[in-house]
Amino acid sequence: MSADKIQVKVTRIVDVAPKIKEFTLVGVNRTLPEFSPGSHVMVEMQGQEKTYRNAYSLLNDALDSSEYRIAVRLQDESRGGSVYMHQSVKEGDVLSVTPPMNLFAPLWHAKKHLIFAGGVGITPFMSYIPEFLRQGVNCELHYMFRGLQTGAYQEVLQQELKTTLFIYDADKEQRCDIKEVLKCQPLGTHVYICGPEKLVEGVEQAAIELGIPLSVIHSEAFAAPKPGTPFKVEIKSTGQVVQVGEQDTMLEALETAGLAIPNLCRAGVCGQCSCAVEQGDLDHRDNYLSDSEKSLGAMVMPCVSRANSERIILDI
Amino acid sequence: MRVAPKPVQSFRDDFTYSNSDEAIERFPFPFVEDEYRYSVNIESHTPKGGTDSIYEHFIDIDEHYLSEMAERAIVLEENPRRCLSMGHMALAGWDFLERMMVSLSTDYPQYFSLRRDKDQWHWENTLLDIQQDFVFGDESTLPMSPLDYMGRQVQGDFALLDQRDNDLFMDAGMITCPADWSLAFDAGMSFSEWHGPVPMAHSAGIFDRALKYLTAIPIGSPARRLNWTLTVNARMDTSPEKYPDWGHERTTVTAENVAQKVYLRVELQIMDRMPRSNALLFVIRTYLISLEDIATNPEWAKRMHRAMKTLPQPLIDYKGLTRYHHLVVDYLAQFDR
Fold first, then answer.
1. Residue ranges of the FAD-binding FR-type domain (chain A) (predicted)?
2. Would the CB atoms of A1 and B164 count as touching at under 8 Å?
3. Domain A112-219 annotated CATH 3.90.1150.10
4. Which class is domain A6-97?
5. Do B163 and A105 touch (CB under 8 A)?
6. Which listed residue, of A261, B63, B258, B336, carries a Cα 20 to 30 Å from B147's Cα?
């Protein structure tokens, strides 16, 4: 189920933090689809050597979808996408995006929403907060960043949340005591985390220690695909052999070789790109397959997962 | 729509409901193989079959529109809890209203029109003689909740499923013509909970696969499937709430009246992502056709005979056909010689 792509024009680029640029996108000859808080789009960038596809959260209030705004952090270990967005994309350029997809929606029945955001991990929550305010539901945000790199949108968040915004700039030695924050939450609170893995683990660990069930802890599972040892993929039906380089994902390599694999999130979450495996030792890195499915080794998510063996055979 | 809505016919008491030749021709006959097999049979809900096919538009409005809306009004009058919405589903209700108003006014401009100026909306439904000015998102400007208001103007039952924790929850809906299930009973249940009574499919892993598929449905890519059962008399409201009215009718089928009394009941189910709330809209559009009318198409009658003959006993029991299934098979046998 690869949804139809939407052509968008970049109408504005602004620096919102030392390493974060915000891009405003409008539809080319069409209106943009409505979206729900927590949604993202996949942005496709036509680089010189390869096509980059990165997922970015929509920042604007979901009530107004006349434009989409996304924020891109220049990644230190960029696979190319964020460098492209920062250095090559100019105002007036046309990009293509997928329709909005939501894998991180707020839980509407929560009595209170408690948010932990780290750095550019603030982005999915930017669309939560206006809707929470409209619904008059209790919301508290703990925002951690390094002020020399990130920390976007502090002013607008301050205006929206006032006394329920807590800011911690690590470059000013400000730290959040996660356990203390979690300790005093009312029943019915749901907790959302987006940020580095360390932050997610830290909140989960504190919750476990306090006896808070993990069913009320939600994290944006997006992780950029990580590089790995090169390997070869053989296509069972045609015998075609595709080389997956150190910096490429298996999905990108298959696409470059002309194979159309349905996909939505490219982050091991949605399960759309699932491929049947005929043979091979797999390095599963997705959040979609269950542990038993992973150990069975019959399916693989080529968007993030790789091979441990030099060659695997896909039954596609 | 070539077939214009007919004057009101009844789905109860004197059962005046009937299908025109055109309605029979366009009926969504569900059996695609000679042998009955359980399958998820989901496909993309894109138009097919050309002009006047039931798949021509997002929602099919047909000759039974006025009858079904009149029947719905009776059911809601009897029991307002056939339309339920939990507090957190308010936004999804507006999603539903918007989806229906936009698609109906686009697909059937001769019957429905919608004018939008930012959040000031004007809706007209000439079939039911309704005109309404309202503010989108402001429930106080409508006579009732958006789900209740619009549900009374569209053929089909509607469930709005909240999506959370990779699961779906039956948290809102308007269900007035169910095939023996109750919204009030299922309210708040998860996908696997409300499918609990279905035999055979759990062990086949069908529900796990279906749930993964449904939770991944993106905006603008609706999906559909057909489901079916049999109903005695052209009764739309076969709900558990009204079981005393219809349960006993299953004992009234005889070899003499089976062709007129037993109806194939087909549900065109449509699943569509709601853009503002991320809820999943589940439309259950029900079509009824008597065995007698099926027999006007020899290919259908023959195939249905084979499907009925190979239907596994657990499914015969689950679908409530135990008492008269053999009469249906016997009647259809004459078309399969």
1. 3-107
2. no
3. no
4. mainly beta
5. yes
6. B63
| Residue among B226, B177, B154, B157 at smallest CA distance from B5 | B154
| B109-158: pLDDT as tens digits | 999 999 999 899 999 999 999 999 999 999 999 999 999 999 999 999 99
Can you name the CATH fold of A231-314?
Answer: Ubiquitin-like (UB roll) (3.10.20)
Residue in A102, A5, A74, A99 with CA at minimum distance from that of residue A46: A5
Sequential DSSP letters for B139-174:
GGGSSS-HHHHHHTTSSSEEEEEEEETTEEEEEEEE
What is the structure's pLDDT at A224? 64
Query: pTM of this prediction?
Result: 0.85
Name the DSSP letter for residue A101: B
CA B298, CA A72: separation in Å to the nearest integer? 62
Q: Where in chain A is the domain with CATH 3.10.20.30?
A: 231-314
Catalytic one of B2, B115, B225, B250: B225
CA torsion angle B266 B271 B272 B278 (round to 10): 140
Q: Is A130 part of the contact surface with chain B (CB cutoff 8 Å)?
A: no
Q: How far is A37 from chain B (nearest CA, A)?
A: 8
User: CB contact, 8 Å: B116 with chain A?
Assistant: no
Cα–Cα distance between B329 and B310 in angstroms, integer? 10
